[in-house]
Design a protein that fits this description.
It contains 13 helices and 8 strands. By secondary structure, it is an alpha/beta fold. Strands 7-6-5-4-3-2-1-8 form an 8-stranded parallel beta sheet, covered by helices on one side. 45% of the residues lie in helices and 9% in strands. The radius of gyration is 19 Å and the shape is globular. The protein has a single domain, classed as TIM Barrel (Alpha-Beta Barrel), CATH 3.20.20.
């Protein structure tokens, strides 16, 4: 019966997160750098109260339950950048993380959900540059990308030459994606030309690796700064824009994310190019994953429910999603330690 319910969800694209459960990995057009055009963003002022009101309605206007909720949670797994960025990371920990990325759900849960082993994976695995080679070897042949933070993560205050060198090192080690951090001072002082040139050089250093620009929105003080930094990063060639390093005092929030996805929408209207979005930091509960999926579906549409245009940066999130899916399968909540991350 449970499998039949989920099969029904798979046949109802609008209800089941807007499409099939299994993620579609398709190559996307790169976002090529363009010249800085301040006229596209300098006149924009974001109304904080309006952004907060809109964000507050996202999870109250749409509710997903039972099979539909299970379908959305499976979709959420497929866009997670499964992450370990700890000072005590070891090759063994990274290999365990990669094993979890390849098989994010227990086989008994897959059977109830009507899925085959290996049918779903996480969107990527994200590690420090020195762990890229280990992750690349563990994920060889799976199609799961290896993402690496770089550019003096998380503060980004090392000399630019060193930050560019770190990008090249991570790419040479096998990184498919690079998560760069911007110099927050450029945004705080309104030096958009300096920010644009910095990100453009980082994009060049990435080569064929896709680049996610971390804006560290908790440090940018205003939503207007968030919008403008988003536009500048995209003009400089960012393939994704990302909220946070996960290490600021305030990380991903729905109002900040709303402003960033509307900047993505504006950028697409002006250039025809689709840029991805990645919230990160503080996403720990399955309900958080659903809230951000709803945001993407309502503000940007069905295309932004696939890993090519949307990622969730998280480490603990997958464990809670698996716990919720076990509740769907059995009717009982299990202890969190039954769903260890690594």
């Amino acid at each position: 019966m449970k499998a039949q319910l989920l099969d029904s969800a798979r046949r109802q694209p609008a209800a089941a997160a807007g499409g099939e459960l299994v993620a579609v990995r398709q190559p996307l057009r790169r976002n090529e750098p363009m010249e800085l055009r301040p006229e596209l963003f300098e006149s924009v002022e974001v109304n904080l109260s309006a952004a907060q009101r809109r964000a507050a309605t996202l999870t109250t206007r749409r509710t997903v339950k039972k099979a539909w909720q299970a379908a959305w949670l499976v979709k959420a797994i497929q866009v997670i950048d499964l992450t370990t960025l700890a000072g005590d990371d070891t090759p063994g920990r990274v290999r365990r993380l990669c094993a979890k990325a390849r098989n994010p759900l227990r086989h008994d849960l897959l059977e109830v959900l009507g899925l085959a082993p290996g049918e779903i994976t996480t969107g990527a695995v994200c590690v420090y540059p020195t762990m890229v080679a280990t992750a690349a070897a563990a994920l060889a042949g799976t199609g799961i990308p290896v993402a690496s933070v770089a550019t003096g993560f998380p503060a980004g205050l090392t000399p630019l030459a060193d930050r560019l060198s770190e990008i090249r090192y991570a790419v040479a080690q096998g990184a498919d994606e690079i998560d760069i951090v911007i110099t927050r001072a450029h945004a705080l002082t309104g030096d958009w030309a300096a920010l644009h040139e910095e990100v453009r050089q980082m994009r060049e250093a990435c080569g064929q690796a896709h680049m996610k620009a971390i804006l560290a929105t908790g440090d940018l003080k205003t939503l207007t700064n968030v919008y403008r930094a988003s536009m500048v990063a995209m003009m400089a060639g960012a393939d994704f824009i990302k909220t946070s390093t996960g290490m600021e005092a305030v990380n991903a929030t729905l109002p900040v994310s709303l402003v960033m996805v509307r900047a993505i929408r504006d950028y697409r209207e002006r250039t025809g190019v689709s840029v991805g979005f990645k919230p990160a930091g503080g996403l720990r509960a399955a309900k958080d994953a659903i809230a951000w999926l709803i945001l993407m579906k309502e503000e940007l549409g069905r295309d932004w429910l696939e890993p090519g245009l949307f990622r969730l940066g998280a480490s603990a999130l997958l464990g809670d999603i698996e716990r919720q899916l076990e509740h769907y399968a059995t009717g009982r909540y299990s202890a969190a330690n039954r769903h260890a991350m690594a």
